[in-house]
Amino acid sequence: MLINNKSRKVLNYFCGTDYRSSLEDYPAANDSAKKLVEAAKGDVGDKTADSELPDSDYFDMFCHWLVGVQKYALTEPKYWKVAPGRDAKNWEPCRDGNFIAMGWSELGDLSGLSKSDYEERRDKLVAELPDWTKQGANQAWVFSRIKEGDRIVANRGTHEVLGIGTVSGPYYYVDGEKHAHRLPVHWDDTTARSIEENGWRKTIIKLDQDKFETLQKAPPKDGGPQPPPDDKNPVYSLTMLAEETGMDEALLQRWVNAIERKGQAILYGPPGTGKTYISEHMAKHLIGGTDGFSEIVQFHPAYAYEDFIQGIRPQTTDAGQLRYPVVPGRFLDFCEKASKRQGRCVLIVDEINRANLSRVFGELMYLLEYRNRSAPLASGGELIVSQNVRLIGTMNTADRSIALVDHALRRRFAFLALYPDYTLLAAYHDATGLDVEGLANVLKKLNKTIGDRHYEVGITFFLREDLDEQIEDIWQMEIEPYLEEYFFDQPDKAKQFRWDLVKEAIGL
Questions:
Q1: Which of 277, 320, 393, 405 allows an S-S link to 349, with CB 3.0 to 4.6 Å?
Q2: pLDDT of 340-349, one tens digit each?
Q3: Do 318 and 405 share a domain, yes or no?
C-alpha cells in the first residue's frame, strides 16, 4: 500500500493511530490500510471487482479525495472552556438543546465575516456602548471560529464543570436571543464535577489537551469514583504538537527525525523563545501511546558528575553515625527505570550549557554514540544507555554561545535553532482576541536594535491570556532591566524602549 501524508491522515483518523512518515512505522501502517480496505469492502460490497486497478490505487485515490474535500475533521480537536452565561444561568437550555451559546449578540451574525469587517463592526459598537471592550467582544469572534470536532467544557464559575461535549456542526446565529452566538454540541458527559480554576474569569478560554483530560478526571460533586488509570500514555500526534506549539508541522517532523537519528538534540536560541515548553511537548509526542516516561533536570554551574552519574554521598545512620555510600545520580537512576520500559524515555536537560558538560557527562560521552554498550564506572558498577533513551537539552545562547560547547559533545547532538517567531505571537492571541500587531512591530524594531540573534527578546514573555492587564509590568520589570544590562554602555538605546515611549505603539 502507498502510505503518504494524505493516507496517513486518513489512517490516523479512522484507526485512532499515530503513524509517522518513517520506515519504522510503514509495516504497521500498511497492515492497517489493508484492514481498512477490507472492512470497507465488507460494508459496501466489492464495487471494484471488475476493475483493472488494484485496491491500493483506489485507497490512495480515496485518501486524496477525502483530504481534498475536507468533509471530516482529519486534524486533532482543539479544547475550549465556555461559560454558558453569567453564573451558568443558560446551562439548562444549552444542555437540553444540544448547543453552547455566547452573548455580545449586538455584533450580529459572524458567519462568513472577514476579520477586518468584524473589527469595523466591533469598533463601532465599542464606541456606542460604554460597558463594551474590544477584548470582551473579541471572545465572540473566537467562539465563531471553533470547528466541528473541537471539545467543549461548560463551566459554572471557577469551581464546577457542568458538562463536556463535542462540537457537532458549524457556528450559527439566532436572531432575537440574548445569547445568539451558538455552536451545536453533543454533550458526552453532563456529570457535575468539582474543580478549582481561579484564572477562569473570561467566558471562553482555550485549553491544552492535558488540562482537558485533567478536567475529565475531576471528581464528581457527589464524591463518585475517579476513572481508572491507563497503563499507556495518551497518543500525542505530531499534528497536536504543531497546534499546541504553533510551529510548522514539517519542521517539527524534521526535529523529531533528528532526535531519532542521533538519540539526543539541543534546542538553542535567545531567552523567551519557548525552548523548555517545546522540549516538554516534544517529549510528550515521543512517549505518546507507549509505556515510556519523561523527566526534567536543570543544570547549573555547581552541577557535577556526582549529581548526574554517580558519587559518594554522606548519610546519617539511625545511631547518628556518618556513612559514605556510592549513590546513583539522576541520569543513572533514569537509565535504570528506562531499561524496564518498552517505549521511548525522554530526559530533558534544561539550561544544559550552564554546567561543565565534559565533566558532568563523564563516561556518557562515549555511550551517547554507542547505545547498549556498557562503560565501567569509577565508583563501581556500569553505565548502560539503552536504545529507548532520548535526551533533549535546552541552551540559552545569551548565557553562553554555542561555539563554546565542547566539540566532542557537539558532534554527538543535533542542534535545533529557535529564534523569535512573531507569527506564533499572533496565532496565540487569535484565541484571546487581543490585537498584538503593534507589540510585534515594537519587538522587531527592538531586536533589530540589539543586532545579535543570541540576545534577541523572545515572544514567550507575552504569551498570556491576560496580556492586556499585565503588559506594563512585564515590560517595566522584565524587558527594561534586560535592556539596561545589555546596553549598559549605550544607555540611549535602552532609553528609547522605555514603557512610556513604546506603550502607544504597542497599543494594548
A1: 393
A2: 888 999 999 9
A3: yes
